[in-house]
Every structure is written in structure tokens, then in C-alpha cells.
Amino acid sequence: MKELQEYVHDLPMHTRVFFSLVEATANLVDVSEKYWQSKGLNGARIRILVELMKEGGTMLPSMLAKKIGVTKPNISLLLIPLENEDLIRRASHPKDGRKTVISITSEGQSLLLKYLPENRQRIAEKMKVLEEQEMKQLLVLLNKLR
């Protein structure tokens, strides 16, 4: 028991940094998720709509799953409510009819335009503890970890 206590309390620098990064990320995600919940929305579903827009509005489900870090079966489950709410549309791939493409609808785009600005503002408020140069430095460091 004493050996385990020492192991969990005497953390090497890389482990302390890792846990600090995880905690900071969780706090920021919590701010965003609480915002989406206050609007009756789901952050994971919003992320799908944002990723679709980043790719010009259309992408393969497998690519979308990879972008948001979920399995192919899970992406299908996430897409169902978005399709039911007419925020996305599924269609046959124009060159390979065996594949399906996902497209954001005008309703999905309108939803993002309506709610993304305030969500981004809330995140910006939390990030104000960092100066511009610190944010640039953090971005460089995070990109190194990728």
C-alpha cells in the first residue's frame, strides 16, 4: 500500500503535465457542453455539424468517425438523431453507389450560425487567463504533442 501511495503522489513531470492537460481540457469541454445542454443540444452532435462544415459540408461517415474519434458503428448512432431533426442528409456517393455521404442541411447550418458565436464567446472568456503570446506558445506546444 505504501509503495502505491508513493507511486500516485510522487508523479514525474511528464505525468503531472499530462494530468494537468487532461483537467484543463475537461474544464473547457464542460463549459462548452453546459452551454449546449442549456440550449437543449448535444455537444457531440454539434461537433459533427462543425466537422461537416470544415470539410465543405459533405463527407464520408468513416472520415467523420475518424475526425471525431469514434468507431464506425458509433458514428451511425450519432447520425440518426441529426438526420431525424433534418440537420444532416445521407445520400449515395456520386462515384461509388455502395458508399454513403453525409451532408449538412440548411437547417444544420442555421443552427450552427445561431448558437456557435455564443459558445465560442464562453470559451474565449475562460481562455482570457492566457495572454495572446501564451496562447500562441500553447498552440505550438500542443501541436508538437499531436
Characterize the structure shown:
- With 146 residues, the chain is mainly alpha-helical.
- It has a single domain, classed as Arc Repressor Mutant, subunit A (Orthogonal Bundle), CATH 1.10.10.
- Helix content is 71%, strand content 8%.
- It contains seven helices and three strands; from the N terminus they run αααβααββαα.
- It has helices spanning 2-9, 13-38, 43-54, 61-68, 72-84, 106-127, 132-145, and strands at residues 58-59, 88-92, 100-104.
- The protein has a three-stranded antiparallel sheet.
- Strand 2 and strand 3 (100-104) form a beta hairpin.
- The longest helix has 26 residues, at 13-38.
- The chain is globular, with a radius of gyration of 19 Å.
- Here the CATH topology equals Arc Repressor Mutant, subunit A
Series of H and E elements? HHHEHHEEHH
The helical percent reads over 70%
Strand content: 5-15%
Major pleated sheet: 3 strands, antiparallel
Number of domains: 1
Protein name: MarR family transcriptional regulator
Organism: Paenibacillus oryzisoli
InterPro entries: HTH_MarR-typ, MarR/SlyA-like, Tscrpt_reg_MarR-type_CS, WH-like_DNA-bd_sf, WH_DNA-bd_sf
GO molecular function: DNA binding; DNA-binding transcription factor activity
